[in-house]
């Protein structure tokens, strides 16, 4: 205790005694280093390992690359095919086939069984088709190599193309068609390629509902048989294995695959001519204009490709590029703008400047782009610009080979497309040798201002100047051709039978007199929505004032969303603000109003509607606006199901849990499927009929 006390006293004296004052030294100022003075050692030379290559007895070309860093094995098969071989009336065939090769399973296992097997061992087997190749890939732990190779082989050589999986992919693609005009940026990219390559060219075509209707299982089988054979296939594998052992496994595994076909034909030639002009898609629900400006370019074999890459990077390749500095930094017109010389391995790519700007600066932005293109054609770039662009290309070179998988993929790709093995090194040396004179020369020779195709997607009413300031203007028609509906004959007999079936349905729920008395209806329900594999719970209040007013309150996890429409216009208000209802949403609302429980049952009283019998228990109800619903009834006439198309996908609603509401039998449970998958489950808490809803109340904004 005395020792502690002594320490405490000493500490107190140290606090009380004045400290010795030492002279204050002024810190020595060191200059801030300039990043331009930083010195880096030269990049290490990239060396590609020797990759053993074999041609098997049946014609398969096999590449093997050992890599013992991790206990993993992965690989892929490349097949000389592609969606560019789609028949003109069946665009999308190769995409469907490439997907269903895997999901449709094989002769011995369904796709779902394969899913379970590979998921249980943290492996993967996937398939797909790109414009110029087909691919089946796999990955697994070393100890599962034999099992996964067997599945990989079956998917590649014995796909079954089960019909339910074909239907699933087609329904997904129908949904994509229906939504393709939702994204303004996507429209700009799609329509640019259609103009540059030609809309009737395989390089510019797009899938329509009619294409999907034309594609049958036999078409998938025929496409597969034509292109998937050993001599048309390359297999590449890398990972933790012994090459001699792996070669033996592949030889034995594929020994019974002896299919022969004539060599695959060359890809269709690009015959498009320049398509100069301004092509505009009017989209009133956006506040920015998305643009694509450019023309047809070349392929990677062009000896001037390295200089074109450097030129393109100087023009719009990054934060230091001319377009970025001019259009974003100086003028403040755009947040994002870039340019690229997109060369392909086996067919011409495009020169492209893309980005977006405020509607009110659309014309000025495109004029600034045109001026920068002209500038780079008329005077040499600076030393700093040249150095930055070349360093960008050369310093990123190492990332082409930063993993064994990338190394193998690059070597196989060059061989697949007929390029020399050292192509990437030739490119590297050529970039190093590019001069300012080269950049000016290729800019003058390859950039063609008079051939520029300009595609703009935006609200034309808010553009700063007339579009024809830029040149000849052509409007882009964004209309999506409607899907073909099953033909049900409309004649006196089917109409009489249809009305009789509908009358029976009216009687089953309470009678036509009670139905005709309904002026308004309110439905309060709990809804489980399926989205991205998760369930989202919502509370909905749907208010209908007949014949055409609709208001919905939807309490979502992120807040309240209020929707209103009178059938011709509308608005949406949510946590992120309010917006006018987009045309495609209005179309959906019109469909909702058309097929409302009460409206659909009273269709025989609407002169704009047609009711015909499809079968003994089904009626098709349609109107002059193109809406159509198939309503199915049970033997007592009670409506138990509705089938219709929404956003291009088939929707099926099934009704159950019928209860009496003011003398009318109403469903209190609705199960909804879209594109063959569960979409929503609706449990009605309460129906309210004839509560006196007024138009001004429904249309009042919160």
3D architecture notes:
With 702 residues, the protein is α+β, with helices and mostly antiparallel strands. It folds into 3 domains: 53-182 and 203-253, Metalloenzyme, LuxS/M16 peptidase-like (Cytochrome Bc1 Complex, Chain A, domain 1); 277-402 and 415-475, 2-Layer Sandwich (Cytochrome Bc1 Complex, Chain A, domain 1); 492-698, outer membrane lipoprotein receptor (LolB), chain A (Clam). Helix content is 34%, strand content 27%. The strands form 3 sheets. The chain has a 13-stranded antiparallel β-sheet with strand order 18-17-16-15-14-13-25-24-23-22-21-20-19. A hairpin with a 7-residue loop joins strand 9 and strand 10.
Key traits:
25 strands; 13-stranded antiparallel β-sheet; six-stranded mixed β-sheet; Cytochrome Bc1 Complex, Chain A, domain 1; outer membrane lipoprotein receptor (LolB), chain A; alpha+beta; 34% helix; disordered N terminus
Short synopsis of the structure:
With 702 residues, the chain is an alpha+beta fold. The protein has 3 domains: 53-182 and 203-253, Cytochrome Bc1 Complex, Chain A, domain 1 (2-Layer Sandwich); 277-402 and 415-475, Metalloenzyme, LuxS/M16 peptidase-like (Cytochrome Bc1 Complex, Chain A, domain 1), CATH 3.30.830; 492-698, outer membrane lipoprotein receptor (LolB), chain A (Clam), CATH 2.50.20.
């Amino acid at each position: 205790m005395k020792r502690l006390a002594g320490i405490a006293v000493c500490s107190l004296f140290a606090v009380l005694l004045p400290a010795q004052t030492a002279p204050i030294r002024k810190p020595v100022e060191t200059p801030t280093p300039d990043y331009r003075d930083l010195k880096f050692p030269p990049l290490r030379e990239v060396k590609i390992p020797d990759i053993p290559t074999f041609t098997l007895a049946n014609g398969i070309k096999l590449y093997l690359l050992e890599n013992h860093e991790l206990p993993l094995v992965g690989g892929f098969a490349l097949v000389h095919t592609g969606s560019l071989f789609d028949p003109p009336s069946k665009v999308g065939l190769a995409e469907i086939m490439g997907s269903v090769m895997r999901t449709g399973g094989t002769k011995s296992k369904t796709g779902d069984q394969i899913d379970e097997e590979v998921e249980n061992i943290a492996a993967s087997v996937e398939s797909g088709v790109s414009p110029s190749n087909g691919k089946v890939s796999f990955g697994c732990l070393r100890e599962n190599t034999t099992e996964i190779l067997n599945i990989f082989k079956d998917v590649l050589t014995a796909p079954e193309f089960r019909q339910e999986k074909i239907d699933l992919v087609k329904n997904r693609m129908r949904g994509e068609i229906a939504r393709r005009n939702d994204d303004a940026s996507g429209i700009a990219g799609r329509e640019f390629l259609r103009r540059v390559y030609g809309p009737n060219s395989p390089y510019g075509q797009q899938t329509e509902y009619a294409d999907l209707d034309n594609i049958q299982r036999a078409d998938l089988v025929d496409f597969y048989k034509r292109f998937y054979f050993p001599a048309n296939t390359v297999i590449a594998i890398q990972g933790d294995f012994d090459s001699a052992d792996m070669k033996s496994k592949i030889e034995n595994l594929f020994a019974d695959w002896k299919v022969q076909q004539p060599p695959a034909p060359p890809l269709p030639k690009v015959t498009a001519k320049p398509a100069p002009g301004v092509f505009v898609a009017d989209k009133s629900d956006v506040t920015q204009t998305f643009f694509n400006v450019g023309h047809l370019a070349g392929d990677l074999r062009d000896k001037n490709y390295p200089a074109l890459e450097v030129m393109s990077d100087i023009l719009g390749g990054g934060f230091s590029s001319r377009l970025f500095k001019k259009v974003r930094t100086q003028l403040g017109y755009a947040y994002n703008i870039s340019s690229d010389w997109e060369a392909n391995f086996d067919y011409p790519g495009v020169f492209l400047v893309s980005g977006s700007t405020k509607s009110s600066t659309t014309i000025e932005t495109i004029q600034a782009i045109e001026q920068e293109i002209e500038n780079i054609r008329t005077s040499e770039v600076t030393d700093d610009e040249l150095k930055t662009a070349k360093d960008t290309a050369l310093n990123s070179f190492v990332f082409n080979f930063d993993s064994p998988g990338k190394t193998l993929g690059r070597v196989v790709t060059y061989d697949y497309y007929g390029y020399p093995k050292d192509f990437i090194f030739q490119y590297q040396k050529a970039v190093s040798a590019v001069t300012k004179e080269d950049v000016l020369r290729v800019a003058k020779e390859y950039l063609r201002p008079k051939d520029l195709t300009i595609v703009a997607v935006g609200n034309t009413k808010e553009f700063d100047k007339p579009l024809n300031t830029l040149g000849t203007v052509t409007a882009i028609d964004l209309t999506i051709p409607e899907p073909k509906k099953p033909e049900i004959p409309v004649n006196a007999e089917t109409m009489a039978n249809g009305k009789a079936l509908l009358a029976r349905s009216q009687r089953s729920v309470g009678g036509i007199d009670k139905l005709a008395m309904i002026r308004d209806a309110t439905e309060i329900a709990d809804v489980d929505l399926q989205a991205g594999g998760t369930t989202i719970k919502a509370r909905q209040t749907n208010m209908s004032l007949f014949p055409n007013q609709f208001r919905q309150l939807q309490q979502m996890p992120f807040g309240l969303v209020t929707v209103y429409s009178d059938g011709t216009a509308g608005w949406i208000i949510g946590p992120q603000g309010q917006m006018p209802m987009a045309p495609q949403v209005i179309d959906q609302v019109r469909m909702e109003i058309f097929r409302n429980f009460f409206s659909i049952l009273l269709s025989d009283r609407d002169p704009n509607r047609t009711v015909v019998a499809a079968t003994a228990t089904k009626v098709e109800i349609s109107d002059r606006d193109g809406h159509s619903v198939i309503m199915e009834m049970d033997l007592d006439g009670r409506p138990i199901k509705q089938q219709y198309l929404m956003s291009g996908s088939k929707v099926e609603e099934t009704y159950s849990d019928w209860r009496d509401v003011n003398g009318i039998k109403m469903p209190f449970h609705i199960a909804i499927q879209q594109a063959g998958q569960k979409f929503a489950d609706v449990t009605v808490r309460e129906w309210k009929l004839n509560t006196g809803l007024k138009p001004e109340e429904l249309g009042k904004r919160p």
